[in-house]
Amino acid sequence: MKKDFFFEVQTQWEKGMFINAKSHVTKIKGKEDIIISAAGEFKGDRDLYNPEELLLSALSSCHMMSYFYVCGQNGIDIQEYKDNAIGILELKDDSSGGFKEVNLNPVITLKNDDQNELALQLHEKAHQLCFIANSVNFEIEIKPVVNGR
């Protein structure tokens, strides 16, 4: 059975609101505001979050949560999870562009190292389930490392 879920954010900008004209506020009901700017490479405020970083964060976080889900289904006890997501954005001559590739590099520590092989294999299933990965049109490569305690 298909089911739709709705998410809503508000983006607000007003002339003179920030020193950097590319800075703005994202509001999500009931949560702290997020101040965002263009990436420093595109004349934004380097001290603020930018959309490119937030997209990488969404991909990394979604993969992790999907991974936790499939590991839970398989009785795998995760002790620690760290990821270093790296994205490659291609800027074209006409100033358009987009991500052409993202690499997720999760390092997972398990309670039992006898589950390492299964834990490695489950990254593929997690990737198939990830809502954000299923919403983008570029390659996502996952290079996991699994260690037991």
From TrEMBL:
Annotated organism of origin: Nonlabens mediterrranea
PANTHER family: OSMC_OHR FAMILY PROTEIN (PTHR42830:SF2), OSMOTICALLY INDUCIBLE FAMILY PROTEIN (PTHR42830)
Name this polypeptide is given: OsmC family protein
